[in-house]
Amino acid sequence: MTRMMCPAIPTQALLAWWLGELDEHEEARLDGHLLACATCAAVLREIVALGRAIRGAGPRGGFSAVLPRLFIERLKSDGLQVREYELEPGGSVACTVTGDDDLVVSYLRVPLRGVDRLDLLVHDPVLGTLRLDDVPFDPASGGVAVVPDIAHLRTLGRSRHRMQLVAVEGAAERVLADYTFDHSPS
Amino acid sequence: MFSLGIASPYARRMNDLDVGGEDDTALARRILARAPGRDAVAEAELCRRLGPRIRLFGLKHLRNEAAAADLVQDVLVVLLTKLRDGAVRDPGQVVSFVLGTARQMVVDGRRTGARRGRLLEAFQLDVQPGDDGAPEPLDTARLGRCLAMLPERERAVLVMTFYDDRPADAVAAELGLKAGHVRVIRHRGLGRLRDCMAAPERQS
Fold first, then answer.
1. Do A3 and B21 touch (CB under 8 A)?
2. Which of A11, A64, B158, B201 is deepest in the core (most CB within 10 A)?
3. C-alpha closest to that of B27 among A42, A4, A146, A92
4. CB count, 10 Å around CB of B123?
5. CB atoms B26 and A139 under 8 Å
6. CA–centroid distance for B148 within its chain
7. Contact A135, A144 (CB under 8 A)
8. Which candidate from A20, A44, A136 shows the least CB-CB separation from B167?
9. What is the spatial distance between Cα B54 and Cα A134, in angstroms, rounded to a whole number?
10. Which chain B residues touch A115 with a CB distance below 8 Å?
11. Contacts of B190 in chain A (CB under 8 A)
């Protein structure tokens, strides 16, 4: 007798099961399916492994992200060492990174009510000007939290970096605020 | 903790006897047919196949690696005991039996140290759940590069989702979005990320 084929469950549904988003009936159905179907179980195990790796990726660096302040608070409460800088529009700060830091976060404060799309421009003396299109933000939050690639920060010498938040309205753009970072290695 | 070691005698014997093509029901039938004797090869293959799936179930419902590993061991001990005793009447229901047992163990939370100790002492689990088809260890540097290539919203949603396995409504609340929108972003981002991780890397 050969192994039975099972109907493939979409990855959205597999992930929804994993994250506890399904109702009781559907969750019970997938409980049974994932015990019976080695193929679907293997797909989900690959996704779960990817998720675990993403969880550990932040402190290792390799990418930057714009994340909500509430999420950063959760990282801190979980014990991550977070170096934080808070800047008002037009503000500047002397900043660094140490070997003890898991993350560096810059809170860029600016009124965001009425903004539909927000882009972030990063002027980096090494990488040049980077544009982060359509960054996630909550208009009620009064700013964004930028988490730069910590691995890159650790390579920097004394240098000046600038960030700009830009509101995009159709084809038009409006600079909302500039921020300046005077970085020194620790 | 309970992985099927490469050095296990069962690994070689399974290959020799080619039971890898049999489904769970056929393996259960073979074990039942030999009861009260043992079909060690079929037992090993059944554990190898079911172990990773039970572990996934345990991780989902217990959210703890050690507890999930214990669940795998406990469920397989009960399953093999019942099969060896001829107490599973319909081998076609072997997965249902596993599901029911796993659910009950999760609900009861009855895997106390004393009980586990007695069970494992009485029933030596000398066939062990394997990790057949387990994902290869991830290239974390490549993961960083693939994450960096995602659109900002997709990267943020994936990081927030997988940091502590948050459902869409919780991520949406922190981002000021609707849950449905987060699910769409998450699905797109995960697809792009998996494609990037699977694609051959360009030589620089």
1. yes
2. B158
3. A4
4. 14
5. no
6. 29
7. yes
8. A20
9. 41
10. none
11. 11, 15, 47, 50
Q: d(Cα A168, Cα B36) in Å, to the nearest integer? A: 74
Residues of B in contact with A120 (CB under 8 A): 152
The reported pLDDT for the residue numbered B61 is 95
Q: Do B160 and A49 count as a contact with CB atoms less than 8 A apart?
A: no
Q: Which residue blocks in chain B are alpha helix, DSSP H? A: 9-17, 24-34, 40-62, 65-84, 94-108, 113-122, 140-149, 152-163, 168-175, 179-198
How far is Cα B122 from Cα B114, in angstroms, rounded to an integer?
A: 12
As a whole number of angstroms, the distance between CA A119 and CA B157 comes to 17
Coil, strand or helix at A156: coil
Long-range contacts, A101-104 (Cβ 8 Å, 24+): A101/A150, A102/A58, A102/A59, A102/A75, A102/A150, A103/A58, A103/A59, A103/A72, A103/A75, A103/A147, A103/A150, A104/A147, A104/A148, A104/A150, A104/A153
Rounded to whole angstroms, the Cα distance separating A32 from A46 reads 19
- A8: which DSSP letter? P
Interface test with B, best of A31, A50, A127, A131 (most B CBs within 10 A): A50
Instruction: Write out chain B residues lying below 8 Å of A133, CB-based.
Output: 151-152
User: Per the CB < 8 Å rule, is A41 touching B52?
Assistant: yes
Q: Do B22 and A57 touch (CB under 8 A)?
A: no
Cβ separation B148–A64 shorter than 8 A: yes
pLDDT (tens, 9 = 90+) of chain B, 204 residues, equals: 333 332 333 333 433 344 545 689 999 999 999 988 899 999 999 999 999 999 999 999 999 999 999 999 999 999 999 999 988 889 999 999 999 999 999 988 755 555 555 555 555 555 555 554 455 678 888 999 999 999 999 999 999 999 999 999 999 999 989 999 999 999 999 999 999 999 987 654
